[in-house]
Prior knowledge:
The chain is of the alpha/beta class. The protein is 54% helix and 14% strand.
Amino acid sequence: MKAELQVRKTIEDHGLIAKGDKLxxxxxxxxxxxxxxHVLADLRKTFGFxxxxxxxxxxxRGERAEADAAWLSDHCKELNVxxxxxxxxxxxxxxxxxxxxxxxxxxxxxxxxxxxxxxxGGAKVVFAHNRDDQAETVLMRIxxxxxxxxxxxMEYKRKDNVIRPLLDTPRTEIEAYCExxxxxxxWDCTNADLDYTRxxxxxxxxxxxxxxxxxxxxxxxxxxxxxxxxxxxYLNSEALLMYAMMAPSKTPNVVSMSSKFLASLHPAxxxxxxxxxxxxxxxxxxxxxxxxxALRNVLESGAGGKLVEFPGGYTAKVLRGVVTLERPL
Length: 329
């Protein structure tokens, strides 16, 4: 299926866009975002939405980055798409936050897009992740020992108004679209840098798996994500029921619930209920299995007064039959 038809089908199948929506596309200038920019520009009248684009200059490539931003600005102007340029010193951000440059760049993009969407009155943020990206994400998470939720990988739409209309479209169709439309995507040299784990996976591991084990490995991994998402949705619905039955006591900074009830839950439901409870007081980042298991060990041992530390300074304490989750002040 051609890229433009596939994107339209994905939008319709998953209800990604409604009439009157405002969309903010993260525009890097690579083939994925450039393809999606043109496809969405063509679909504006069909679905009745407004389209905006945001480009982040990481301040890593000097004059070349400035030229790229100017080219994208002119490109958007030709399509009558409002363009915003944001600059961020990603190297400094990585150092200040104690994270790698790749992660700092991702954080900077997400923050800039979220801010722009808020300024527009609650616009949807559009990412140009494609089907190949989904396969790579699944494989990366398998290598890290993920669970069902991790296997579900990237979602078509999230509760925070992020959508991915390109998620069913293979990279080959995206490249064919760009070639047929005479589009010349910008080349990011970091995409070939084997210091990045994802690049090694894309350029080395996946081709080897396709050659020696399964020529359709990317399709298989994408199907795995789809199947895992169905299972994850069902488990989440069951967890919501259990969480409601627990009737936890809640304040903006503390959630308290029965330790006996929590300990009685199946491990698959227990971990989801725990994450839901932490989300109530602001812990929305992924909680590693080591933390989840540490609290469960305390619950099963019956030890009282034990404090378990979670990411971001959050804690869980078991005392007198009650589990108290607390946000750092």
